[in-house]
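#struct-help
A.M.: can someone run this one for me? Single chain, 106 residues.
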Amino acid sequence: MITNKDIQKAFDFLRDSAVEAAQCRANRVYLEENRKSLKAQIMAEHNTLPVNAQEREAYKNVAYIAHLEALKEAVFEDEKIRFLIDAAKIKISAWQTMVKSQDISL
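D.P.: on it. Structure tokens below:
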């Protein structure tokens, strides 16, 4: 049984998590886009090599690997908040269905 208290908590969570969700998405998108710039910068450090070798050097670079770790964390945080928001929305939807079915049976 979904209580009114449960629904209020779900509404509160949706309201209160908006800024966090936006920041998580912004971090993720920034890191995804910045990965390309970082790769280009590292490749430029090896501009005497053929392009495929420049790319190899970029992919094995410590800064690039650290960036991927940061991207992994950003994706995790973004997906976690998204799943929690989806769960709150589903709970509210289930409650709405439950209330409607009670109104019909009365």
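A.M.: thanks! The chain has a mean pLDDT of 95.
D.P.: also worth noting: The radius of gyration is 23 Å.
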